[in-house]
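Postdoc handover notes: sequence design on the structure in folder B. Input tokens:
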């Protein structure tokens, strides 16, 4: 089994319930082909660096997947056909970083010098 980090960007005008349906759809594809989702993170709505299909923002969903390569090709085949997705990216990694939440919003930020 290989380790993959898979990120998809969903259009900004998609409702939160539709985002949840998209998460479930791709989770089921992974499980159908005997893969394992180690962690699923919804990073939320963030600005894009440049316009993609007339969108300034996108909802980011990040999967940490333990699976064979055929599952990734099946995921990407389905994502090419999905009109709600702007982009997707899969990266093969040697090990997962499960401790760090890179996009966690913290309300009590420390102010330097105070």
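Designed sequence:
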């Amino acid at each position: 089994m290989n380790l993959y980090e898979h990120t998809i960007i969903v259009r900004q005008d998609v409702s939160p319930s539709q985002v949840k349906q998209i998460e479930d759809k791709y989770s089921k594809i992974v499980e159908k082909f005997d893969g394992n989702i180690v962690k699923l993170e919804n990073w939320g709505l963030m600005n894009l660096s440049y316009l993609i299909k007339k969108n300034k923002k996108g909802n980011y969903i990040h999967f940490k997947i333990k699976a064979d390569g055929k599952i990734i090709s099946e995921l990407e085949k389905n994502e090419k056909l999905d009109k709600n997705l702007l982009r997707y990216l899969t990266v093969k990694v040697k090990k997962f970083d499960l401790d760090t939440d890179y996009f966690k919003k913290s309300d009590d930020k420390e102010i330097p010098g105070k």
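Context for whoever picks this up: The chain has a mean pLDDT of 85. Don't rerun without checking with the PI first.
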